[in-house]
């Protein structure tokens, strides 16, 4: 079975842990400790093939620190998370995206998925679909709107990333 790793990055409170734990444990955690950084592993089937995926849920408090750079160096795929209810968190995604490319030595051929969370909080929504659609087009990155609470489109995110990693990294 081929193995890949994914690093989940984004501002604090956007729902990185909720998304990760929904994917690996299929439950919604309401109050996950924001300081906890944890590595999970789950098998995932993509196009009839089983993959082992390691997911690193970062604590989100160390933007632009050496630690982030370490994760970016060792990460093969990245999930850049913002909250649809918090416009400012989208700018953090842009920063992280650029930082990844810098850390990868200017290489933009890096598997990345952009994820907007908390899709269920319709009344608190600040980021409109066309805004993120335009940005994702400009960045040439796939993007998904999700809800970890309702389990909307969570698996698609990870499947997309595995597909990108499968195509980007030839079997070693
Ligand atoms: P992190 O700091 O990025 O890891 O964010 P968390 O995963 O800890 O989530 C921060 C807060 O947002 C928590 O109170 C979660 O319950 C809430 N949250 C996360 N995802 C969702 C979601 O999909 N829907 C709703 N309604 N709340 C969410
Ligand atoms: Mg967290």
TrEMBL record:
Membrane topology note: Lipid-anchor
Q: Which InterPro entries match?
A: P-loop_NTPase, Small_GTP-bd, Small_GTPase, Small_GTPase_Ras-type
Q: Name one Pfam family in it.
A: Ras
Question: Which domain of life, per UniProt?
Answer: Eukaryota
Gene Ontology molecular functions: GTP binding; GTPase activity
Any GO BP = signal transduction
Q: Which UniProt keywords apply?
A: Cell membrane, GTP-binding, Hydrolase, Membrane, Nucleotide-binding
> Keyword Nucleotide-binding on this protein?
yes
- This protein's record includes keyword Translocase: no
CC terms in the record's Gene Ontology section: plasma membrane
Protein name, per record:
Ras-domain-containing protein
What's the source species' lineage? Eukaryota, Fungi, Dikarya, Basidiomycota, Agaricomycotina
